């Protein structure tokens, strides 16, 4: 899908490119998005987690009687997210009423080779200058989320669609190492016992089964349901390799 273009006050056309970075919880998608934001000029990050409902509205699992933050039907306020993405596509600006709580969460530092960052920064800076000489200003929106490819209204807004796949055992280990997640209200959510086995992993399979061939989330290739999905088996790659691959995809998208 081509990106939307609009006029800005300097008579440049503004081209907004939305890039989806999806994958399971603890797959490295937010870290990757932040590295890409440092490389791409005129870029903003949109976290899907910020569209979760207020804590008191999160549904309770009918079997395990705990709040279910992961089932796709109740984990995200989908109309609000879709409208926000449409607004970003139109303006290149995150709506002023949108508030992110990502900064409250534990931020694990995964360093990136300075040479790689500099090299790709120069590539995209030059592409930006070339576009501006042609009267076009480019703005990048990096959208990260664990349910990014479940709702068509979300993934249809994306110009590039990337999925990071990591084996369950590694995801589970990383999740257990985390101290919890902050809600929009600022409170800290900690997983109850067996939350991974009963809630998180089953919901991940449910949300992503259709986008993989034969429903094989761990080993299957893209099914075609999400057009032009770029699947990266992230555990086999270093952060440098992930950034390199994604920058290649974004360069081709641009």
UniProtKB/TrEMBL annotation:
Keyword Hydrolase annotated: yes
Highest taxon above the source species: Eukaryota
UniProt keyword terms in alphabetical order: Hydrolase
Gene3D superfamilies noted in UniProt: P-loop containing nucleotide triphosphate hydrolases
Keyword hit for Hydrolase: yes
SUPFAM superfamilies: P-loop containing nucleoside triphosphate hydrolases
InterPro entries per the UniProt record, alphabetical: P-loop_NTPase
One Gene Ontology molecular-function label: hydrolase activity
PANTHER family in alphabetical order: URIDINE KINASE (PTHR10285)
Protein name from the UniProt record: P-loop containing nucleoside triphosphate hydrolase protein
Biological source species: Lentinula lateritia
